Amino acid sequence: MDEIDRFGFAISDETRALRAAMMRFGETRLLPGAAERDATKAFPAALIDELAALGAMAMKAAPEDDGPGVDNMGYALAIEAIARCDASVAVVMVASNLAAAILARHATEDQRRRFVRPAARGEIGALSFALTEPGAGSDAAAIRTTARRGDGGWVLNGTKQWITGAANARLFTVFARMPDLGEAAFGCFVVEAGTDGFSLGRVEDKMGLRSSGTAMLHMEDVHLPEANLIGEAGQGLRIALGAIAPSRIAIAAQSIGIAERAFHLGRTYAQERHAFGQPVAAFQNARFVLADARTSLDQAWLLMLRGAALLDRGMAIRGEASMAKLAASETCGRVVDAMLQLHGGNGYSREYEIERLYRDARVMRIYEGTSEVQREVIARDVLGV
Ligand SMILES: Cc1cc2nc3c(=O)[nH]c(=O)nc-3n(C[C@H](O)[C@H](O)[C@H](O)COP(=O)(O)OP(=O)(O)OC[C@H]3O[C@@H](n4cnc5c(N)ncnc54)[C@H](O)[C@@H]3O)c2cc1C
User: Is 133 assigned a catalytic role?
Assistant: First the structure.
């Protein structure tokens, strides 16, 4: 029995094959260099291009857009498989797929030809999603970047922060206020790297996910033609938030991938390490720690799979996506911590993989909506407000 069958969800042969391919890629191509990239902060550009060529940077793009047309279940399982081996690569995939999903959903025929199809064919590597700014994260409506009318198109000014993959991306979805259209009007734009006035800022020196190329972006009088506006003028924030909700299933998957790897490492270590004349795994405490970790991991899996299945049925989920993200990210933090504890002092050494997982895990509770923001979303559903 495939380990995924324990959950009782119907998984197609196509999805199983995709999951197996991603597991293989992770184990053979990503895992061997993950510690080195963590140490050097090197962005895995060639590996990202390889994944892009497999369709992994725009997985849900439809076959008529030259994409693999993967469903939400397949996408979640692919992210989980990659995150087991390199969570930095997994987050670059999530950000790219988020940007690509926005383009695929809202692009005109001309934009499909220029952006969606090349992305789906893997010709432009990973895309970036640029919403957050130094003064606006959870409160996305507080962004200050502006897009004003000019030269028959739009002129962008502002700064973005914490943009995954930005250090290497060639295509960005950028969100800005549209003061010409009113206080509550926002726009979504597609910006190509190298556009005049659009420059890369500081690459963040992060605690974890160190090779994901997270950077600032500066925009100084960036002139864009009307043809680079995605969707309706004024609807940019709605476009961003509408895409982030389903993407939370992918962050749940990433969290589960990290926690699964940690669980594997913790269990193996406890079986091999001896203390007081017996394997650590023989102590009742270690057995209970492993039992609790397995139980909470399975709970997180079930919420994640439920979210993916509901999305595949065409349901617009909100609270269910937040529950999946909240449960998986909090579980990830607890499981990685418990598995590090089973490693004793060695868990605190950079020589052991669990130390990297501990640092990578922390941001799961922060990005794509903090745990507090997820609770707010769930509470709104619970209270019907
Ligand atoms: C590694 C990394 C990668 C990222 N990648 C991207 C990316 O690719 N694109 C992008 O646009 N952004 C990205 N982000 C930004 C990320 O989404 C934000 O950091 C996150 O949404 C939190 O926003 P903030 O950092 O401004 O924190 P703040 O919003 O300032 O939050 C500070 C604290 O206040 C709490 N808080 C805020 N509002 C509420 C509330 N209503 N109720 C209760 N508590 C509240 C928060 O939970 C948190 O504890 C990334 C961030 C990191 C760290």
Answer: no
